[in-house]
Write a sequence for this structure.
């Protein structure tokens, strides 16, 4: 009888990220040790060489980001993982990946900031940085798991989106999600969809590396495939060569934003919980969404009509889904482990229609169900 | 002459809109010429070469030539190159940097790439100045010179690039000047063929920024200075330290054997597959 491979494990969010990355076909990891993300590097250093992949510990996070872009240009799915201070260092090269349209995945396990902050405590203080940390207008996809299961699933999704849309994808979660242990049942091979970038099939002389397509995503050759082309962080024409012409820069900038906008229906992921008849809606993500779910259950027991929208995609901001929630409810509560970052976006979408209330905490601890319940009582 | 025309036809990009960005008389074109001749002599196919650069005048070199070309961020060229080489070791990865690129903003990456002995070739154009931004002092601007950010003379000591490369562990280090173009051909060819981290430092001239501010004359005058002050490694061995003051030591400074990163990592993969981890992941 064939021995059955165990498929159920107790593991940390950080471990699940590694498993998700390997499931998605990641074969290159470059990183620099930093709490609370270090486990991802350590486990990658064990597992990648087992599957003929490459792990390298670079001299800093700037180098890590450069290396994963280089590996991706050579045709290999690549990833790095860090926390706040390292994420700050990665920003310039992150913008390069947006500009040159290089798929890669960056994991930011959020700890308290600013600066060195609170390395061992959770935070959601980097969610605006994930959106706007690198300079210039750029599209970005940011996913936010709240469970170990989602750490796995959203890491697979992050690779899929990065490959499909030729863009860096950021996975952000707080230290609690990174270090919390839960049961994870591994999907079987091919049970979950894995997407690879489209590579050119035309003869090299016909290949135009940054040509517009119906979906706005040109096929991507790897260095060494026989399609010799130029990659630059300067604004470039469809052949990849630097350009100063407004009639070339404009369409390029439009295209890199359009390709993400066209993908919004699948990129924007969330889950609603008892929202159907809710008067009060909570919008939350990460660890806080778990506290919020418990608060909803407790509030319902007390007869209060409360529901939850859990955001699994933070950026591009889920405007349409949130507008629908606002239309149905009188009050929206946005609890976050920061001074109020996503709540500003909710207020922007709200345009004064519903009352938007916030619950914030930056003392190093996460927001508890009781705290949210108190917030519910205050507005009901 | 015919030979040169053939190389130009073979390696220059016909679909790139010339003219190039460099000032008339710049040394960068001569360095690119040497690099093309060196690559041609190695016999590598154009598809197998990746030319990576940072930011600055030297950073614009790859765009004109018909290889896999990558113009990265300032100082980070070696990090991108590291990823490319480890992801596909069959590629021959050549990195071009300026002195600001490799020694200032990218100094850390440079010493670590040398220490790791990743099979890359680093070509550093050392013109002692930030040319593209208009003549600010760089880590290789000598003490006592002028720059737009050192209007009252420069008070810092300069980095000696090749000597730093030797100390950091590069297995091949060569230095030449733009004047000694044929020497450059040979140094670059050897560095590209060398297994491991090879460095070629090229002393170049920026007559437009550095030369003008320091009254060093035209491009030709500055190349004559290179000619008159270059001392071969062999001759330098017979000279006293005070005689070597202000001279450029040219030729091969180091050519040694050390295990390369990729070969060592292959051993890691073997151990990993046998389950010999010291960590229960």
């Amino acid at each position: 009888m064939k021995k059955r491979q165990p498929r159920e494990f107790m593991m940390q969010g950080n471990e699940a990220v590694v498993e998700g990355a390997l499931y998605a076909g990641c074969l290159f990891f470059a990183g620099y040790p930093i709490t609370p993300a270090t486990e991802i590097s350590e486990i990658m250093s064990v597992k990648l060489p087992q599957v003929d992949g490459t792990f390298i510990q670079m001299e800093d996070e700037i180098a890590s980001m450069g290396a994963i872009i280089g590996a991706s240009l050579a045709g290999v799915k690549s990833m790095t993982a860090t926390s706040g201070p390292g994420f700050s260092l990665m920003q310039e090269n992150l913008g390069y990946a947006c500009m040159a349209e290089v798929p890669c995945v960056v994991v930011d396990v959020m700890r308290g900031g600013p600066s060195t902050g609170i390395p061992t405590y959770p935070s959601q203080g980097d969610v605006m940085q994930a959106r706007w940390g690198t300079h210039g207008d750029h599209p970005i996809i940011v996913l936010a798991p709240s469970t170990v299961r989602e750490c796995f699933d959203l890491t697979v999704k992050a690779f899929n989106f990065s490959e499909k849309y030729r863009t860096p994808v950021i996975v952000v979660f707080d230290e609690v999600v990174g270090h919390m242990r839960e049961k994870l049942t591994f999907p079987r091979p091919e049970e979950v969809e894995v997407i690879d970038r489209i590579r050119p099939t035309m003869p090299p002389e016909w290949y135009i590396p940054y040509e517009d397509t119906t979906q706005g995503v040109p096929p991507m050759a790897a260095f060494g495939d026989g399609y010799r082309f130029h990659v630059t962080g300067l604004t470039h024409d469809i052949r990849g060569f630097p350009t100063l012409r407004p009639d070339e820069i404009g369409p390029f900038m439009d295209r890199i934003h359009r390709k993400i906008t066209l993908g919004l229906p699948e990129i924007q992921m969330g889950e609603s919980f008892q929202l159907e008849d809710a008067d009060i809606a909570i919008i939350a993500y990460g660890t806080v969404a778990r506290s919020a779910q418990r608060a909803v259950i407790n509030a319902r027991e007390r007869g209060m009509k409360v529901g939850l929208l859990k955001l699994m995609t933070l950026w591009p901001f889920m405007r349409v889904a949130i507008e629908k929630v606002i239309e149905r409810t009188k009050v929206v509560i946005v609890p976050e482990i920061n001074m109020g970052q996503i709540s500003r976006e909710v207020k922007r979408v709200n345009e004064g229609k519903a009352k938007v209330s916030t619950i914030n905490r930056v003392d190093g601890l996460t927001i508890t169900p009781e705290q949210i319940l108190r917030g519910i009582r205050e507005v009901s | 002459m015919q030979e040169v025309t053939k190389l130009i036809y073979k390696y220059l990009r016909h679909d790139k809109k010339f003219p190039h960005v460099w000032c008339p008389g710049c040394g960068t074109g001569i360095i690119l010429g040497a690099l093309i001749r060196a690559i041609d002599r190695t016999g590598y196919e154009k598809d197998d070469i990746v030319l990576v650069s940072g930011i600055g005048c030297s950073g614009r070199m790859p765009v004109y030539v018909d290889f896999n070309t990558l113009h990265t961020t300032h100082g980070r060229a070696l990090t991108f190159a590291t990823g490319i080489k480890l992801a596909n070791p069959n590629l021959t990865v050549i990195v071009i940097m300026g002195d600001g690129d490799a020694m200032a903003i990218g100094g850390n990456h440079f010493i670590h790439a040398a220490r790791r002995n990743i099979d890359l070739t680093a070509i550093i154009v050392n013109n002692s100045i930030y040319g593209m931004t208009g003549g600010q002092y760089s880590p290789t601007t000598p003490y006592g010179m002028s720059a737009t950010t050192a209007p009252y003379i420069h008070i810092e000591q300069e980095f000696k690039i090749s000597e730093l490369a030797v100390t950091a562990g590069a297995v091949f280090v060569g230095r030449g000047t733009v004047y000694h173009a044929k020497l450059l051909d040979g140094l670059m060819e050897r560095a590209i063929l060398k297994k491991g981290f090879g460095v070629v430092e090229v002393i170049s001239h920026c007559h437009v920024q550095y030369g003008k501010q320091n009254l060093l004359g035209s491009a030709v005058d500055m190349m004559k200075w290179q000619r008159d002050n270059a001392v071969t490694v062999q001759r330098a061995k017979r000279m006293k330290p005070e005689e070597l003051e202000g001279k450029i030591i040219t030729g091969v400074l180091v050519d040694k054997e050390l295990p390369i990163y990729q070969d060592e990592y292959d051993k890691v993969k073997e151990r990993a597959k046998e389950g010999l981890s010291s960590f229960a992941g």
